[in-house]
Amino acid sequence: MEELRREIRHHDxxxxxxxxxxxxxxxxxxxxxxxKRLEEEHPELRSPDSPTxxxxxxxxxxxxxxxxxxxxxxxxxxREPASLRRFDERVRKGTGGAVRYVLEPKLDGLSVxxxxxxxxxxxxxxxxxxxxxxxxxxxxxxxxAVPLRLRRARSAPALLAVRGEVIMRLSAFxxxxxxxxxxxxxxxxxxxxxxxxxxxxxxxRVTASRPLDIFFYDLLHAEGASFETHRQVLEAFGAWGLRxxxxxxxxxxxxxxxxxxxxxxxxxxxxxYEIDGVxxxxxxxxxxxxxxxxxxHPRWAFALKFAPRREVxxxxxxxxxxxRSGTVTPVAIMRPVEIGGVTVSRATLHNREEVERLDVRPGxxxxxxxxxxxxxxxxxxxxxxxxxGPRFRMPATCPxxxxxxxxxxxxxxxxxxxxxxxxxxxxxxxxxxxxxxxIEGLGEETARLLxxxxxxxxxxxxxxxxxxxLEPLPGxxxxxxxxxxxxxxxxxxxxxxxxxxxxxxxxxxxxxxRDLAERFRSFEAVREADAETLAEVPGIGPHVxxxxxxxxxxxxxxxxxxxxxxxxxxxxxxxRAARGPLEGLTFVVTGTLDRWSxxxxxxxxxxxxxxxxxxxxxxxxxLVVGEGPGSKLATAERLGVERLSEAELADxxxxxxVR
Length: 659
Known about the structure:
The chain is α+β, with helices and mostly antiparallel strands and 659 residues long. The strands form six sheets. Strands 12, 13, 14, 15, 16, 17 and 18 form a seven-stranded antiparallel sheet that branches. Strands 2-11-10-3-9 form a five-stranded mixed sheet. Helix 23 (632-639) links the parallel strand 23 and strand 24 (642-644). The radius of gyration is 27 Å and the shape is globular. The relative contact order is 0.08. The mean pLDDT is 87.
């Protein structure tokens, strides 16, 4: 049993910390199930730090108050470079000269303290007021990136307190909100709120169902251990299995900090999680002690924040918009404004209760926000300066098809399914999206046009189109008509995962579709599987399995799928992990390339056996550098990772026989 625990902890570390799994999910599940069986047979041999103990316990009546081993100070911060320069001057004056800083991204999540005793997680708490916080130990134990027992636990201090940031990645945040809305619950406003709300659940089972993640960045207390620099602390974290961000850089001058700040801000929207600035820390721990702390924040650290991705504009109108799932959402139509390099003229108001809460009306000035790739949203109504329009009222019937609308909690739905033109157009656009059939030219406007002109009455009609039918349409000519039809024909042969995702099955995102494809290998096998069989797929619980089963067994859906598969679409089996001349190599791509799009290059590399990741680490074989690279380039230089220009990459591929 102890050997199984060690092996499972090792694979957890490879998967959740290094992002470099060595075994398949099925092999991991076999190990886990064997340990679980043995512990059930021999309960007297259970261990509190066993991987099986991540399973959430009973709901709490309230969170206990927990006093931190060391106060968790907040950071002095500003968006002004002048404030950073004043901080640097104070540090140099207090240390008497030269200083080295460690730069890290400022994670936008929920700060927590984790305490380990003899290498085993003993308790976890939120920051609270900095002196004491809420005890969330059972909830933190469900986060798979948190080691219940430290690696090399014998080398760890007998009593160790570390500080980390609980986050939710953007893709997981979007999937969680979609899941909440499908069952009539209020979605979270942003990933930070989603992480905080998920961690602070009295029922740990709810937290366990939420896709939380964590990074560690500060040592609070280490009994019997000493370090000279913050860099040494981060290295020790890595050895103990406490994941740290890979975007760490050293600096000696303010200009180095400002350059790092610019690089990260430029790369901000490419990241998988939200950051809102840069943290500057004195590296030398003895110098930190000399600088000391105020009652509120340490004198040896400073946060230079990014400019907020918020702008003020005027609401022109509020209209109900019908999505592909039938959800009717109030959308603010606004004077166009640029946020983070993107022009925004529409922003979601979520649901009718949110409109009432904000009391947004035509004519109002509002503050809008765009976080990562999340749809722009209205976050605040500013005090009225002129005449305001009438209050928004959700219509009684669907604005697209006239069907009486139904309500579920704060949400409103059109129950007419694919007979509703707006839902059909949304499903059509989804079918042609990048992770589905990837049909070039089939965007939102074209999908609506095809439906409104009666050329597509059901999804299969798309594959019967001829260029002559498209030429008379607004915005089309002979060449553009032929190009779209050719793109549709090309997409008619597709992989199983893309087809499953493209069907728009509730709860099935791109990852779930890949998991289903890998497990069942053919659409017929998916169709024949019952809900219990579907639920056995790792990562797919009863709710998703039920949604898939219900969708496949629906009479109209079966008829549409049968039409698609009747000579219109050819679905190939799931691809197994590729083996090829690039096997064993790990690539990261940064910047803009001329010869390939980033997606095309990643697919090419993976097709020939390479592993492609989004972050540079010591395990990265090559960083491919295009025009306008971000901070990944500096990380690669610091770690000694070999960099390749586009031409050098082409030479490497040719040497390996890849074309």
